TrEMBL record:
<dbReference type="GO" id="GO:0005829">
    <property type="term" value="C:cytosol"/>
</dbReference>
<protein>
    <submittedName>
        <fullName>6-phospho-beta-glucosidase</fullName>
        <ecNumber>3.2.1.86</ecNumber>
    </submittedName>
</protein>
<dbReference type="GO" id="GO:0008706">
    <property type="term" value="F:6-phospho-beta-glucosidase activity"/>
</dbReference>
<dbReference type="GO" id="GO:0016052">
    <property type="term" value="P:carbohydrate catabolic process"/>
</dbReference>
<comment type="similarity">
    <text>Belongs to the glycosyl hydrolase 1 family.</text>
</comment>
<keyword id="KW-0326">Glycosidase</keyword>
<dbReference type="InterPro" id="IPR001360">
    <property type="entry name" value="Glyco_hydro_1"/>
</dbReference>
<dbReference type="InterPro" id="IPR017853">
    <property type="entry name" value="GH"/>
</dbReference>
<dbReference type="Pfam" id="PF00232">
    <property type="entry name" value="Glyco_hydro_1"/>
</dbReference>
<keyword id="KW-0378">Hydrolase</keyword>
<dbReference type="InterPro" id="IPR033132">
    <property type="entry name" value="GH_1_N_CS"/>
</dbReference>
Length: 500
């Protein structure tokens, strides 16, 4: 059943159609022009059933690797992160956007993009993270990128942090466990706000900020109160950093639109057993509302006390922090959406087995090759639920299908499955708009193929644009539009009316 029929499907006149990438997954050029390292530079490739690893040299000089576990890879005491000779690190090359950005942006413009979401690599601007003066070459690169977008009439939507804290800060300060990170982040944000004041209007402070706690129970965090203590404390420092950046951004340019960014998974109770229904509500609180409430409402929600108590969490929160949170609320609520998950309190039910997807298998859904439950109605549900909660302008800043693509003899790529994925998701957005949601934009994930964050693969392809490179970095890096490229072009040209 269609969510809405074509005759009534309406997107606002200035709806921002586009796509999204992240620096560490696309740029490559990991050690060029003075860039410092991030954890992604010491993270190996993996797959749906073998994890990515963070590599290090231990205190006795021996090489080792630890599971990256959703970007939180912790290494043994006394070890230091290291690039090992016989390992391959897919983020070092990405899809070499650093050297292909002109060609790539021209292709996005050909599709009619109104907005391009990308992130700034913090360690390109501040290689260690604690410097006073920025790296000019880093600033120059993003200026060239934003100017190129402007030339094509494309707005830039910039993520300030996309899982890539400078490695030096991780190693020498303990990363986000340390309150000092707030000042380093705010200095970085202030630097780029001032630098790109007239080039960028739309900003996101922390990509998928809720991942830090939402995925904890999937990585053996259950029963490990220390992981929760650290996770919630790191989040608190990030909330304060985000709030202070929002406040500063508005002082630097009152026209800035600054959003939060939540990993938006729609959770359902697996059955109507009240235990499941209540567990589902609590999953929304812990995974989704906790971060959104702080960043939109400027204070911790009442259920925070329950969450902290459950894991014996005691937070370092100052009065000034509370003031900062209240004064730095976001202008828009943005989120990624890929899937829904079923929450169950029952044992013996069939479980899903994807990376980052959890819970009972939903018999009403089909699953991607990476085990993600494909559910466009879940997107409508999420939009309506969150708009009702916050009444803020919204953007879907990631949505897409990671899939295997086949290049035909003649070089074409027939990715009908990707078109079939997007169509009902766009219909779902239209339905939510019809029901009153103030949705301003849509940036599909990986408008150009890139390295998967979860698995480090390139063959988990997301793009409308194919990049000739494999999981070991072999290939010409040549760009080729897929069938979905021409389809999305039509979608944009018709402002979402023509989805055929
Ligand atoms: P990949 C987990 C669950 C949902 C979204 O993911 C997630 C993650 C973390 O991997 O991340 C976002 O590449 C993230 C992007 C990422 C994209 O979703 O694992 O913001 O960086 O690439 C898709 O298939």
């Amino acid at each position: 059943m269609k969510a809405v029929n074509t005759m009534t499907r309406q997107f606002p006149k200035n709806f921002l159609w586009g796509g999204a990438i992240a620096a560490n997954q696309a740029e490559g050029a990991w050690n060029e022009d003075g860039r410092g390292m991030a954890k992604t530079d010491v993270t190996t490739g993996g797959s749906v059933d073998s994890p990515r690893y963070v590599t290090y040299i231990d205190k006795d000089g021996n090489p080792g690797k630890a599971p990256a576990m959703g970007h939180n890879g912790v290494i043994p005491e006394g070890a230091h992160y290291a690039v090992l000779e016989d390992e391959y690190y897919p983020n070092h090359l990405g899809v070499d956007f650093y050297h292909h950005y002109k060609e790539d942006i021209a292709l996005l413009a050909e599709m009619g993009f109104k907005v391009f979401r990308l992130s700034i690599s913090w360690s390109r601007i501040f290689p260690n993270g604690d410097e006073k003066e920025p790296n000019q070459k880093g600033l120059d690169f993003y200026r060239r990128v934003f100017e190129e977008c402007h030339k094509h009439g494309i707005e830039s939507l910039v993520s300030i942090w996309h899982f890539d804290t400078p490695l030096y800060l991780e190693e020498h300060y303990g990363g986000w466990n340390n309150r000092k990170l707030i000042d380093f982040y705010v200095h970085y944000a202030e630097t780029i706000f001032k630098e790109y004041r007239d080039l960028v209007t739309y900003w996101l402070t922390f990509n998928e900020i809720n991942n830090t706690v939402m995925f904890l129970d999937m990585f053996g965090g259950q029963g490990d109160d220390k992981a929760f203590q650290e996770g919630y404390q790191q989040l608190h420092y990030q909330f304060v950093a985000s709030a202070r950046a929002v406040k500063l951004g508005h002082e630097i340019n009152p026209n800035f639109q600054i959003g939060n960014m939540i990993c938006g998974i729609t959770f359902y109770p697996a059955t109507c057993d009240p235990h499941d229904v209540l567990a589902n509500r609590h999953k929304w609180e812990q995974g989704i509302y906790y971060c959104g409430d702080v960043q939109v409402k400027g204070k911790y929600p009442t259920f925070s006390k329950r969450l902290w108590k459950e894991h014996d969490v005691h937070l370092d929160i100052t009065e000034q922090d509370e003031k900062d949170l209240a004064e730095g609320t976001v202008d828009m609520y943005t989120f990624s959406y890929y899937m829904s998950n079923n929450v169950t309190t029952h044992t013996g039910v069939e479980q899903v087995s994807g990376n980052f997807s959890t819970g009972a298998k939903n018999p009403y859904l089909t699953y991607s090759d990476w085990g993600w439950g494909l559910d466009p109605i879940g997107l409508q549900y999420y939009l309506e639920k969150m708009y009702d909660r916050y009444e803020l302008p919204m953007m879907v800043v990631e949505n897409g299908l990671g899939a295997f693509d086949t290049v035909e003899e003649d070089g074409s790529i027939h990715d009908q499955y990707r078109i079939d994925y997007y169509r009902p998701h766009i219909e779902a957005m239209a339905a939510a708009i019809e029901n009153g949601v103030d949705l301003r934009g849509y940036t599909t994930w990986g408008c150009i193929d890139l390295v998967s964050a979860g698995t480090g693969e390139i063959r988990k392809r997301y793009g409308f644009i194919y990049v000739d490179v494999d999981d070991k970095g072999q290939g010409s890096l040549e760009r080729t539009p897929k069938d979905s490229f021409y389809w999305y072009k039509k979608v944009i040209a018709s402002n979402g009316r023509d989805l055929d």
